Amino acid sequence: MAKKGGSKQKKMDTRVNFTPMVDMMMLLITFFMLCTTLSKPQAMQLTMPSNDENMSKEDKSVTKASYTITLFLGAEDKIYYVEGLPDYENPECIKETTWGKDGVRKLLIEHITEDGFSPVAKVMMAKKKLDEKKEKMGDKMSKEDYEKQLSDIRNGKSDEFVAEFGEKGMQTLTVIIKPTDVSTYNNMVQALDEMLICSIGKYVIDKVNEDDEKLLELKGIKFSDNK
């Protein structure tokens, strides 16, 4: 018996070849990696105590009492301060203020030293002049030059301060921030914001010591979960 004749149908390959697409994707990813600009981290600038060995002990330790303010961050968003050195036998040296422009900011700006002027107000005025100069000059003033001049202003070492106060420049205000155990992270951020707004170049974050605890207890201020 003869076999039935007939044409064989050619099978079509239904698979899709993704190899060219993968190659194209790799090329695109490489292109965007090379051409894009990575986002810069946004972080608040902190000024910490200097470890410069070339700095003399005199420069590290000599700070007139009236050029120092201590801030205590308390419970329930309260803030207290001591102008000058704390008198640990006198609880009346510690006072309460509020957050914002009418509170701690006003205190810092209007604080008058024993030399009869406000260093914070002078620094803020000098920074305002520098910002106006930067606005007029535009790109002619580089970012590095602006930051250098701003740093000199915050440290009282600008040409203006050297001309007025002598070779060492103007002594600036030192702020000591002491968060208690019952203060919040937001309180700490608020305090650092005030340092930035007031252009204060010298501030430190310190722990509440035993003498501070005794002073706060005498004043009736809560500084821990137990006291």
Integer average pLDDT: 84
Low confidence ranges: none
What is the 3D shape?
Answer: flat
**Main β-sheet: number of strands, strand sense, barrel status?**
5 strands, mixed
- Class of secondary structure makeup: alpha/beta
End-to-end span in angstroms? 111 Å
Strand order of the largest sheet: 3-2-1-4-5
**Number of H- or I-type helical stretches:** 8
DSSP summary, beta strand count? 5
In short:
The chain has 227 residues and is α/β, with parallel strands linked by helices.
Helices and strands, with pairings:
Elements: H1 19-35, H2 57-61, E1 68-73, E2 79-83, E3 95-97, H3 104-110, H4 119-137, H5 143-154, H6 159-165, E4 174-179, H7 185-197, E5 202-205, H8 210-219
Parallel strand pairs: 1-4, 4-5
Antiparallel strand pairs: 1-2, 2-3
